[in-house]
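Deviation from plan, reported transparently: adenosine-5'-tetraphosphate complex.
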Amino acid sequence: MKVEEKKRIFSGMQPSGMITLGNYLGALKNWTNLQDDYDCLYCIVDMHAITVRQDPVKLRKQARDLLTQYLAVGIDPEKNTIYYQSHVSQHAELGWILNCFTYMGELNRMTQFKDKAAKHADNINAGLYTYPVLMAADILLYQTDLVPVGEDQRQHLEITRDIAGRFNGIYGETFKIPEAYIGKVGARIMSLQEPTKKMSKSDENKNNTILLMDEPAVIMNKVKRAMTDSGSEIRHGEDKPGISNLLNIYCACTGKTIAEAEKEFDGAGYGAFKTAVGEAVVAELEPVQKRVKELEKNKDYLDEVIKNGADKSTEESWIPSCDSLIEKMEMDEVLCILSIFL
Ligand code: AQP
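Because the crystal trials were delayed, the predicted structure below was used instead.
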């Protein structure tokens, strides 16, 4: 019987801070659900993290913490490839090549660049601007079929598809065109105090985010203080960003639908609702936190996962070296020129 080849998944997360409930519900939780059906590469994208200023010692710790959290949510290093982006030089090499196939007009439209440039006005560097090109290289390097991301990354996925299509159009079928995989729930978790802006790990206001490693009392307190809307109804709607966000969080943690949750809290006050949301988050995160603490004690195991991940991902990179891609481009150029004369 022919064994059907599994489709390939690539996704990554920046070690730019302690990960949030948004990162967990929008990305990590989906990753664990996909690992049996797909061939998955889960990367710690440390080179992306340096597009904003980082303290090297902290960055190194955050990268290791992130790896531990990948494992703690249940991503199995035997089934998946878990690795640091900076351990595989082809990411940067392919990033450079793809820069030459990306237009500034396209990069000018990227909303994440605009947001981050506004946030880091003293350090609007070229890396921040070309961040989506490095992300395209991350994905295209492994002939990826699917990229599970939160809603905020959809635009970067689109530009990846455009760059790959452009390259293929000039040099023949080279890169697989990837699709975004965006979960139905938890795809966009918003800030607790400013629910029209997304929850982000680099947010300086700690009351805006729930961290994966926040203690239960801290979680309960942050949810209780979350911004709510006028009126007293527990209802999902554009006019109720605060309550809608809490409903999304509740549903993503409990597996209930919005309609079920609205029915459950029909007539309940904001206080009782917030307590239920906080408890649902605590119940979701507590087992992960426990596992993180266990894993942290096992330094040798973590070192081994990092080492094996670097070897495995380097082997799986579709382009053994960027020389070979340039060689292919030269070959196609020659064929192109020949075809003019034939
Ligand atoms: N609020 C969110 N809701 C749902 N999904 C989210 N993701 C991020 N924030 C939310 C998803 O998490 C994955 C990892 O993202 P990243 O670390 O590569 O960068 P990011 O999207 O820029 O995440 P942050 O938390 O906002 O980081 P900083 O503050 O450093 O910029 C992605 O799949 C993302 O969609």
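DSSP finds 15 helices and five strands in the chain. We consider this an acceptable substitute for the interim report.
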